[in-house]
Amino acid sequence: MKKRRFIILAVVSSISFSANAQQKEPDSLKNLSLEEVSISSKYFKRYKSSQLSDMLRLPTPLLNMPQNIQILSSEILRDQVIYNLNESVTRNVSGTLREELHNGISPDIYSRGGYISAQRNGVDMRPLGKGPLADDISIIESVEFLKGPSNFMHAMSDPSGSYNIVTKKPTGQTRRTADILLGSFNMFRAALDLEGKIDQHNKLQYRINIMGMNTKGFLKYDRNNKILFAPSLKYKFNDKTSLTGEYIYQHLNYLMLSEAQASPYGYGTLPRDFTMTDPGIRPFIGKDHNAFLTFQTKFKKSWQLTSKVSYVNSGYDGSLFWVNGANHNDQDILNRNLVYDSNKYTVFSTQAYLNGTFKTGNINHNFIAGMDLNRKSSRSWDTWATATTIYPLSISNPQYSEVILNNGIGGDFDSENSISSDLNKIHRTLNYTSVYAMDELSLIDEKLRVSVGLRLTSSDGNTNDYGQQSQSRDWALTPRLGINYALDKSSTLYFLYDQTYLPQSGISVDGQSLKPLKGTSYEIGVKRDWANGNWNTTLSLYNLYRNRLLTSDPTSNLQYQTGESQSKGIEFDLKGRIAKGTNVVVNYAYTDSKITKDELNPANVGMATPNRVKHIQNTWINYLLPIEKIEGFTVSLGYQLLLGRTERMTTTTPDNLKDIFRLDSGIGWSNEKYNINFLVNNILNAKIYSTAWRNQSGDMYYWVQQAPMNARLSFRINL
Q: For residue 693, what pLDDT is reported?
């Protein structure tokens, strides 16, 4: 095996290679950042990223950012044979986990004791109800996790943070790839990624992603079918100005909204494949339309203007059986109600921001300013509170396929559920306008960077929840202060103070509109790039506060808002190529998040916030076998460990939830044309459940069952 060394020059979106590591760069490239990568074979990976995407607006390298930000490349997700964001993506980021309640929609990711906001291409997607639909790996270029508030993006989030999906766009290269995925539970999936140029001058570029999937599930009668179509075009007026248009369409057809199970006997007490649903009921249909239009132009050498218009139209509807309480005459019988559930969700967003550099005396400035306008609307029809007909199901001897609606008469869902009444409707709107500015000052030969930012946000919301109406208007001024000091070329210390503002949707117990949640975050940390940037580490300590915390009222479907919480913890992330052929992702987080104030229910003070896990430790290793005669063989090993879990809802009588340990392993082979990867998940066949809670009366236990041992085989061809 011949060893070669390459120098990778990051020049906008192109990558040029130099075969001689000692070759002197041209004068025109002296100001560009260079990253040296040692390659010991034709097969190498890029687990470690050094730069944010254009979607996150800041050109500052991650090492010099005063914040814990973790970037996951699509290559990591492919190695782990993940096909959408609802799978084990969070294993790659310290302290994050998914509330695994909704199948196919709502990634619902938690971090630092709070629900973090979703972004897609920098657009705020945080729902007013459920949603958005889970992003598919076939359109994901990378996933950026921003720990804590990020005022340079938007202040509309929980202080725990947000994540951004960067979708695939034209790059000017000509590539053709086909992916096939086979797996347990009759999974079959195929995808195409086609990219190239339309004209000979490479001014008009295209990229098309197409995907289709059909699979069953480990629960009885579960199934999930999905198609995706995502074309995009980029027109380069010249080297400095471009216009990019993207469209993403997803269509889902699946039987189960959730893999949840229910039992009066305690958590995890049902057979692993037990289902409450029935193959004869109406499936869930989900549709997701996304349109993005981005204009970028550079001027005066170091300034860039970006303007975006985005529109998202997403929705789903279907039916499910749900159990609201125990049958006190016979605990073997689950009293199921047939529930209709739907949501239609739209987002219209306009963004414009200017960033560039200038100098005053000996101080270099990296400046950004802009505005965001966002219009959200959410309409839901459901029968969670009005479905009354009982459809009994025996736990010990379940009988399916014999369900007839309307108490044996038959009929449609409207007559069964009366979804046209005010008691079944939710309509929420939220409009906000925000302006901001941030200046990063570089001092002491750029060893010290001080970033000062300020954002002004005005919001206007209307709520009609099951016939109760309210309106809210508010505004907030949220500052940001960050300090980053370079110990040397590879190590930095940082401090961050940041605030966030999050309008709430819904009505409180007293009939008033919910007031915005406001949060404050303090964070300190140290970052280091090792081995010429092949891998990096981040160690961070944080302390954040939330006021106006929402808590469910135990006697109604409404919420009250008198609480406060505090989250503090330690996070460690390691990512990259630590040795020849060895790529790893290792992280650990200690999280202490609890209620500190609750006027209506003082007994909650000191209790854990929802879905808190005290200790999370993940490891993933991909190793290239040093066998010269048969190059390209790899082995993979990874595990997830969650200790000190708490329930989905705050309770004064918490149960001890079972710890989670999942072990995965696989083998693979690749060359320049083919890539084959075989992975076995949960090789110990452990019976694992996540997201657990009890009903209001405490006589019924709910949890989300996890899959038994299962396997996946992926096959990629570079056409």
A: 94
**CB atoms closer than 10 angstroms to residue 122:** 26
The dihedrals phi and psi of 491, each to the nearest 5 degrees, come to: -135, 140
Q: Which tokens is 390 given?
A: 């009982």
Distance CA 84, CA 102 (A): 13
Q: Could you give the C-alpha distances from 627 to 565, 622, 634, in angstroms and in order?
A: 54, 15, 10
What would be the CATH architecture of the domain defined by 45-167?
Beta Complex (2.170)
Task: Look up residue 56 and give its DSSP letter.
Answer: G
Give yes or no for residue 10 having a pLDDT over 50.
no
d(CA 552, CA 277): 26
Give mean pLDDT, residues 604-621: 95
CB 33 within 8 A of CB 103: no
Bridge partner list, 610: none
pLDDT in tens, 484-529: 999 999 999 999 999 999 887 667 776 667 778 889 999 999 999 9
Q: What is the pLDDT of residues 292-334, one digit of tens each?
A: 999 999 998 899 999 999 999 999 988 889 999 999 999 999 9
What mean pLDDT value characterizes the chain? 87
Domain ranges of the chain: 1-39, 45-167, 175-714
Q: Is 107 helix (H, G, I), strand (E, B) or coil?
A: coil
CB within 8 Å of 72: residues ≥ 6 apart: 89, 92, 93, 142, 143, 144, 145
**Mean local confidence (pLDDT), 701-707:** 95
Task: State the chain's maximal CA–CA distance in angstroms.
Answer: 84
Q: What is the mean pLDDT of residues 618-623?
A: 97
Q: State which amino acid sits at residue 443.
A: L
Residue 627: alpha-carbon gap to chain centroid: 37
Q: Taking Cα atoms as reference points, which of 116, 69, 107, 96 lies closest to residue 546?
A: 116
Q: How confident is the model at residue 16 (pLDDT cuts 50, 70, 90)?
A: very low
The length of the chain, given as a count of residues: 719
pLDDT value at residue 504? 75
The answer to whether 68 and 148 have CB atoms below 8 angstroms apart is yes
Is the domain 175-714 a CATH 2.40.170.20 member?
yes
Quote the CA–CA distance of 174 and 10 in Å, as a whole number.
19
Strand partners, 587: 573, 618
User: What is the pLDDT at residue 685?
Assistant: 97
Q: H helices within 286-398, ranges in order?
A: none
Q: Are 211 and 241 in contact (CB under 8 A)?
A: no
pLDDT higher than 50, residue 15: no
Residue predicted with more confidence, 408 or 354: 354
CA distances for 13 relative to 10, 35, 51, 169, 248, angstroms: 7, 14, 11, 11, 22
Concatenate the DSSP letters of all residues of 566-588 into one string. EEEEEEEEEEEEEETTEEEEEEE
Residue position matching structure tokens 């109800």: 129
CA dist., res. 418 & res. 493, Å (int): 60
Phi, psi of 447 (to 5 degrees): -75, -35
CB 620 within 8 A of CB 583: no
* Closest C-alpha among 225, 129, 234, 230 to residue 171: 234
Query: In the numeric block, which tokens belong to residue 169?
Result: 């766009």
Alpha carbons 619 and 540: distance in angstroms, whole number: 18
